[in-house]
């Protein structure tokens, strides 16, 4: 294994995943993963005036193999965050992430196996299916993207608060 550093490394997919690997990765996504739609406000130095929205997925864990497998089958970005007492991080964290089209590819394959984040995956896929490009972006397109962004945020809040559909470990 190569020496661990905080440098990011990119990878292209090298092989398709087996059904068992997809089920495993869905479990990792359910437990240690994130499905996120971000919203960036425009900066005055950029040529556009509308907010930008982006879909991305990430899995974070303390075992590098949790990152290496999705890198092999989906590609993307992987990196290690070394222990840091300033941030109260005692262990090396390994992170895999993909965005936009690669995120869609990963979600399409993982969604049948997701249990806790299946609704978030559906919403994220709908977001990308409705991601129309116009230059300049029309106000109704911004409103639609903002709606997906806010809906996913609300889903996450409800899951954290233990909504009706959140499985209970202890009754």
Which spans of ≥5 residues are poorly predicted at pLDDT below 50? none
Distance between the termini: 43 Å
Largest beta-sheet characterization: 5 strands, antiparallel
Secondary structure tally: strands: 5
Describe the structure.
This protein is of the alpha+beta class. It has helices at residues 19-32, 65-74, 100-110, 118-129, 139-160; strands at 9-11, 33-40, 52-61, 76-81, 93-99. Helix 3 (100-110) packs across helix 4 and helix 4 (118-129) runs antiparallel to helix 5. The longest helix has 22 residues, at 139-160. The mean pLDDT is 86.
Summarize the structure.
Helix content is about 40%, strand content about 20%. The protein is of the alpha+beta class. It has a five-stranded antiparallel β-sheet with strand order 1-4-5-3-2.
State the main characteristics.
20% strand, single chain, 5 helices, 5 strands
Please give the structural blueprint:
Layout: E1 9-11, H1 19-32, E2 33-40, E3 52-61, H2 65-74, E4 76-81, E5 93-99, H3 100-110, H4 118-129, H5 139-160
Antiparallel strand pairs: 1-4, 2-3, 3-5, 4-5
